[in-house]
Write a structure and sequence with these properties.
alpha+beta; Hemopexin; 5-stranded mixed sheet; elongated; Nep1/2-like; Papain-like_cys_pep_sf
């Protein structure tokens, strides 16, 4: 029987099976952690160079279940989760959840995606299939509000049932659900039908929309997996293909590549934690200062969570974690005496802190300077500059000077 055929439960096992030897023999490791004995992995030859570099760095660390490589308020992925993803094991619920959260963030914040497509988190279908009415109401409120249901043209709902990940897609205009499964089985089709009936019954009973049209289920002919633990990989790629409006092309021979790429993505992930909001909403102390309309440059101060912010010929020192104004706004030359008589006294166009403590690079037009900013005092001094950017930064010669004669 294929490894991914129906089986009971999806809970994480205390002891997991992994591949961790050059000859591919199976070994068992517990959750105390281990350092991989090999830097090889199935998708190494198929991933991009930068992805392989990220993964090789990752493989030098200890794999355990209580150190996280990706985390947000709602979900977390441990080193062990990522290692299992990379080496061909069964994807944890947390890995699936993380990819759904990442994708939803991209849909909500990027113009590259259609915001009329919505992806729910995997816990929604699980609550319906388990028949927990209290949890159903909670998950519906979190995942598919009435407004979201009416606004979206397509809703993608991951399902894990009988140990298998599959997907249903509601296309509202067509009054149909589409079912995507990398293993064709009447068991998974029956689970999809069970979920759909409960989902539509909840909407009819709770949202006051009246009797809804019957929504049929169409099984989509999609590529099938081999006797592997790749159902989660297939489902993630089904979702990506629908959201990106491209054909589904994954095959069972591609899974090692997708595992490597999905794993690397966890190390490069960026997401909006708060906002977008106006500067004045995030930092109310800037109201009425001119800084609320935009800033020109900033660099990290030597204390944690503090930064210098610049606009025009003025600057301020703030704490951005517990938003408060520490100093300013005041003239740049009042706080940075070394900049008097330089082009920077009237403004700074870009800046960043050096890796050397208390040092920062400043840019304006085609000029730059490296300064020691003397935290807590006015003993700052110029280390080098002001001078032309390109002789010291030759890699920028092809882009500077730009049409604005410098940097943004």
């Amino acid at each position: 029987m294929p490894l991914d055929q129906p089986k009971e439960g999806t809970k994480k096992r205390r002891v997991i099976q992994i591949l961790d030897s050059p000859d591919g023999k199976k070994k068992y490791k517990n959750e105390e952690g281990f350092i991989p004995t090999s830097r090889d992995y199935p998708g190494k030859a198929l991933a991009f160079d930068y992805e392989n570099k990220l993964i090789e760095d990752f493989l030098q660390s200890r794999m355990n279940s209580d150190t996280y490589i990706w985390k947000c308020a709602e979900a977390s992925v441990s080193r062990l989760d990522a290692y299992i993803l990379l080496t061909g094991g069964e994807l944890s619920d947390d890995v699936i959840d993380a990819f759904v959260i990442r994708l939803c963030n991209k849909i909500e914040t990027s113009d590259s995606y259609d915001r009329k497509i919505h992806v729910t988190r995997p816990w929604l279908a699980q609550a319906f299939l388990e028949g927990n009415l209290e949890m159903v109401a909670k998950r519906m409120k979190e995942n598919v509000s009435q407004q979201k249901f009416l606004e979206c043209e397509r809703i993608l709902i991951p399902i894990v049932s009988s140990g298998h990940w599959h997907l249903v897609e509601l296309v509202r205009e067509e009054t149909k659900f589409y079912h995507y499964s990398s293993i064709n089985s009447p068991i998974y089709t029956a689970d999809a039908v069970k979920f759909i009936n409960k989902f539509m019954s909840f909407i009819e009973s709770n949202w006051g929309l009246g009797k809804l049209e019957h929504h049929g289920l169409v099984s989509v002919a999609v590529p099938q997996q081999g006797p592997t633990l790749d159902c989660g990989i297939f489902m993630i790629e089904f979702i990506n293909s629908i959201v990106e409006k491209r054909s589904i092309t994954i095959s069972k021979g591609d899974c090692a590549k997708y595992r490597a790429r999905f794993c690397a993505a966890l190390f490069t992930d960026d997401r909006i934690i708060e906002g977008p909001v106006t500067i004045a909403e995030m930092f109310p102390f800037f109201k009425g200062t001119g800084f609320e309309n935009g800033v020109d440059a900033a660099f990290e101060y030597s204390a944690d969570y503090e930064a210098y912010i610049f606009k025009g010929d003025r600057y301020a020192l703030i704490n951005y974690k517990q938003p408060r104004l520490i100093g300013g706004p005041k003239k740049i030359t009042d706080g940075f005496h070394s900049l008097r008589g330089t082009i920077f006294e009237s403004g700074i166009e870009a800046a960043f802190a050096s890796h050397t403590k208390n040092e920062a690079y400043l840019f304006k037009g085609d000029q730059y300077a490296l300064i020691n900013f003397a935290p807590g005092g006015t003993d700052d001094y110029i280390i080098t500059g002001p001078k032309k950017i390109t002789p010291s930064w030759p890699s920028l010669a092809t882009v500077l000077p730009h049409k604005n004669h410098g940097l943004d």
